[in-house]
């Protein structure tokens, strides 16, 4: 038993004290050994390899021989300039927190020290199907039908004009939005902060309309939002009467939006459920002369229910993949059969006809079994097995971008009734139980609530060519609709003198809405429809962009840059 002496502590309780005592004894023994007379017959040792240093020791506790020169300390690194507001960059905080140790493991360079802020966008995640990036800048970027959750604009010019809007400017911006007032700014503004017209137009561009409106819940995005909504108050989850009231009110708002879309007074709107998203577009947008509705992602059960309701739809990405395979087979056949093109085409026709023959054989009777006399010994596949075998490829693409379903024309009205009466549209359990889908629109509708995107400007320091340069940024968060991206870039073009970059954060399930809708309508019909769309509430230049045929495919714009009033982008 250890003696109970005041101040006594075993060595295992206070190891630093024991280590200091051992180092002290070691230094004394080394000093005594050097002070002792050296024998005459002792020859100097041959030079050997340097002694390996203990990796767990530092400059303070490493044992040194007497007379050994102290290691030279590296010159002190100048502290980086503090950011406005007294904040230091991330690298400076690491320098203050980490001790000065010898042979410190090399840490990955902080972006703020060795990398330009604008070069961070070079390594953005690129989807599998990447469209061709334009080789030369253009004066307009393609329409992006995906919904962004966040935009980060960066420029060398400050964004002070977007801060602290006056009450009159905010009210004027709301009035301009409700009255669909067109704002035309000059190409460049010398004093953006003093431009009341710019500040009002900025407030106008941040407005969108939402239903339902529950301030304590974030109602977009809805896919994968269970964890974010967990623990929030939801009095309707156990009250069926309240659920019916909410769904009845939602049906009225949904029908109101469709009627506005049909009358070309609303350009588009989104229906966001907990499983899929639907984009309704008015006739004349995205190169189509009829109303279109894109549903993504879908499942075999949802597609089967739509077929049972008489809704005709297509799977454009599946058809595109099928066409691509046919073209690849043509190329391979031309390479294999080099004798003539006729032989290649005939072989191709034979290969294309084979799958349809197999499908027809599945539906035919098994009369050949009777001819062989084994019809009673062989178990025939039932109709369900044959159906599942045919739909195997459909099951494999469930919940994927390839499951995009496209509805056109009058079938969109049937889809409207189907969604209103579909019980699986609302979650039966979980944090979103009983909560109607979210409706997002750029214009007002019955039951809609006016909302605004959140915007804030930040000024910081970034390393650029061995010096610290001011980098100004403007962050816009919330459901950024397609028209908002175009309107904001048009305002920034004038306010930032035609030079800025933007990083776009996309809600991934909506990126597939940039898929082509098929054959474009004739130019005369497009002009007629375009005249009717002028009253939809969007700026004419924004409307011209949304009328274009989608070219981004399954991807969306991730990085957008304007230089000398010309755009370049990366998808």
From TrEMBL:
Compositional bias of kind Pro residues: 72-83
Keyword Chloroplast listed: no
Residue ranges of the region described as Disordered: 1-88, 325-364
UniProt keyword annotation of Nucleus present: yes
Compositional bias annotation for Acidic residues: 348-364
Domain of life: Eukaryota
One Gene Ontology biological process: nuclear DNA replication
Localization of this protein: Nucleus
InterPro entries: Donson
Cellular-component GO terms for this entry: nucleus
Keywords carried by this UniProt record: Developmental protein, Nucleus
Family: Belongs to the DONSON family.
Protein name: DONS protein
Lineage: Eukaryota, Metazoa, Chordata, Craniata, Vertebrata
Gene name as annotated: Donson
């Amino acid at each position: 038993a250890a003696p109970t002496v005041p101040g006594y502590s075993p060595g295992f309780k206070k190891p630093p004290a024991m280590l200091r005592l051992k180092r002290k004894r070691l230094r004394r023994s080394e000093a005594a050994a050097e002070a002792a007379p050296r024998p005459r017959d002792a020859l100097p040792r041959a030079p050997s390899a340097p002694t390996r240093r203990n990796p767990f020791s530092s400059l303070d506790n490493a044992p040194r021989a007497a007379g050994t020169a102290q290691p030279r300390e590296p010159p002190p690194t100048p502290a980086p300039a503090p950011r406005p507001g007294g904040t230091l960059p991330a690298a400076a905080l690491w320098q203050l927190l980490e001790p000065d140790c010898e042979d410190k493991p090399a840490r990955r360079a902080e972006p703020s020290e060795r990398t330009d802020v604008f070069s961070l966008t070079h390594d953005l995640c690129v989807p599998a199907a990447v469209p061709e990036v334009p080789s030369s800048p253009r004066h307009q970027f393609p329409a992006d039908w995906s919904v962004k959750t966040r935009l980060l604009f960066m420029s060398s010019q400050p964004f002070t004009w977007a801060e602290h809007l006056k009450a009159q400017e905010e009210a004027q911006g709301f009035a301009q939005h409700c009255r669909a007032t067109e704002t035309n700014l000059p190409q460049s503004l010398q004093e953006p902060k003093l431009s009341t017209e710019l500040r009002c137009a900025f407030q106008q561009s941040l407005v969108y309309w939402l239903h339902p409106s529950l301030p304590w819940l974030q109602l977009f995005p809805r896919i994968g939002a269970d964890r974010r909504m967990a623990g929030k108050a939801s009095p309707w989850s156990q009250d069926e009467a309240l659920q019916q009231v909410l769904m009845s009110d939602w049906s009225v708002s949904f029908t109101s939006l469709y009627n506005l879309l049909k009358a070309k007074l609303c350009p588009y709107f989104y229906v966001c459920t907990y499983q899929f998203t639907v984009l309704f577009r008015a006739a004349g947008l995205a190169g189509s002369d009829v109303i279109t509705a894109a549903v993504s992602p879908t499942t075999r059960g949802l597609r089967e229910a739509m077929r049972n309701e008489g809704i005709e739809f297509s799977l454009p990405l599946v058809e595109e993949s099928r066409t691509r395979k046919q073209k690849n087979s043509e190329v391979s056949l031309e390479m294999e059969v080099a004798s003539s093109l006729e032989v290649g085409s005939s072989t191709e026709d034979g290969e294309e006809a084979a799958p349809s023959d197999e499908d027809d054989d599945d539906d035919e009777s098994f009369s050949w079994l009777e001819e062989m006399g084994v019809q009673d010994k062989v178990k025939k596949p039932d109709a369900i097995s044959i159906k599942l075998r045919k739909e195997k490829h459909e099951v494999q693409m469930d919940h994927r971008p390839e499951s995009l379903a496209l509805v056109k024309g009058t079938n969109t009205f049937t889809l409207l009734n189907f969604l209103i009466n579909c019980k699986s549209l609302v979650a039966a359990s979980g944090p979103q139980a009983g909560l109607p889908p979210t409706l997002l629109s750029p214009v007002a509708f019955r039951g809609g609530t006016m909302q605004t995107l959140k915007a804030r400007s930040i000024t910081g320091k970034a390393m650029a060519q061995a010096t610290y340069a001011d980098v100004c940024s403007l962050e816009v968060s919330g459901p950024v609709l397609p028209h908002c991206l175009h309107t904001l870039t048009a305002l920034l073009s004038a306010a930032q003198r035609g030079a800025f970059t933007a990083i776009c954060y996309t809600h991934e399930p909506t990126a597939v809405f940039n898929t082509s809708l098929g054959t474009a309508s004739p130019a005369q019909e497009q002009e007629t429809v375009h005249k009717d769309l002028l009253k939809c509430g969007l700026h004419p230049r924004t409307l011209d962009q949304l009328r274009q045929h989608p070219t981004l495919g399954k991807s969306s714009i991730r990085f957008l840059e304007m230089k000398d009033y010309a755009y370049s982008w990366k998808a």
